[in-house]
Amino acid sequence: SPLPWSGELSNAVMTGFTTVNVCGAFLSSLLLLIWFRRHLRTPWLRVALVILYASHWLQLVRFTFFYPVLVDAWAQVCCFAGLSCIAWYQEKPGRWPLAATAAVSTAGVFFREVTLLIPLAFLFARNPGASWRNGFPYVSLTNAPRPAQWIPLVMSGLALLWIRGFIVPTDPAFSMADHFGYRAISRSLVTYLLGWIVAFGPALFVVAFDWRAPAAFFARHQALVVYMLGVAAIGWAASLESSRHAIYWATPVVYVLLGQTIGRHPAWFRSPALVALLLAAQALTHRVFLATPQPIEGDVRNVVPTVVLTPLGDDASYLHLFPNYVAAETAWLQLAQFAALGVIILIWIGRRGWGERTRKQRPGWSGGPR
């Protein structure tokens, strides 16, 4: 029988996790606002994107109250802080941004190994490049990582090795290489891509239509390319749920691209009908007005819920919200709905964009009243 004080201890542990993770989620929101300030000029847009971030059912601002026993909140704090430290170093290279990057990277691995992406990305903070030479060594490097830029990676790597000395494996037959290999081979491209769409909703389509500008942005910020490639690779080979992995770690970069697109193309969003469609679809994807359902017993693939961008109705359970667990017909139906929505959005803003370009090409057009 349970001990008389076991219930009180359990409640205390849950309360402790909730308190610590709520503080982490709040701090992440502030760090995200600071990050947006570096890349977005419009204050209301920065606040709107933070609200968008916090509204997703899986984001830790909401999800902590549904599932408090997680270590992701403070790993997210370290990742968000690390990205700002990288930007700080790009603006003013020096020992202080270097020390800050090393500190948050080292602290981050105590929560999640994914924070190793911060010191890896830091190596590319100066946008290194290469060109061919006629003579030996035939390759000329520019802006290569300075020796000091390796300090955060070395420190976080040593911290991770130290942590491993305290780990007691519960399954002696477990192999990390076999685990990653199995995940990488068994992963479905359909559910993986759908996981990213579920994480960010129609916002991804808006960014995709403006693809030239994000490509130029990544060319100026190679560190973010390395970071996003790392997020994508780890999400493919290690994460159980691609949507969770995407929204926890890729949000700062994706939302900066979204904010820059909105600021660059205000004409796209002057249609009340289009804005209403985007907001409604984003709210459904984020499940803004919907509760997170409880888990059910048995295999969720045996139950096919109603799907309107997100699983709905009494048949929808917790694992139905993750594309990686649902039946194939459910995943394909959800993907088809998002694809149809994406086509509508891209055609709509494409026509407005074409009209804007046509007006600019007319003789005498100056962007103002004629």
Q: Which features would summarize this protein structure in a list?
A:
370 residues; mainly alpha; two-stranded antiparallel ribbon; 16 helices; 4 strands; disordered C terminus
**Residue ranges: pLDDT <50 for 5 or more in a row?**
361-370
Taking all Cα atoms into account, the compactness measure Rg is 23 Å
Which structural category fits the helices and strands?
A: mainly alpha
Please give the number of β-strands: 4
Which strands sit side by side, in order, in the main sheet? 1-2
N-to-C span: 84 Å
Task: Give the percentage of residues in beta strands.
Answer: under 5%
- H-E string: HHHHHHEEHHHHHHHHHEEH
**Arithmetic mean pLDDT:** 87
Shape estimate: globular
Could you explain the architecture of this structure?
The protein has 370 residues and is mainly alpha-helical. It contains 16 helices and 4 strands. The chain has helices at residues 6-39, 43-55, 60-66, 72-91, 95-108, 117-122, 151-164, 176-186, 189-200, 203-209, 212-220, 222-237, 242-249, 251-264, 272-286, 328-361, and strands spanning 129-132, 139-142, 306-308, 310-312. It has a two-stranded antiparallel sheet with strand order 1-2. The chain has a two-stranded antiparallel sheet with strand order 3-4. Helix 9 packs across helix 13 (242-249) and helix 9 (189-200) crosses helix 16. It is globular and about 65 Å long.
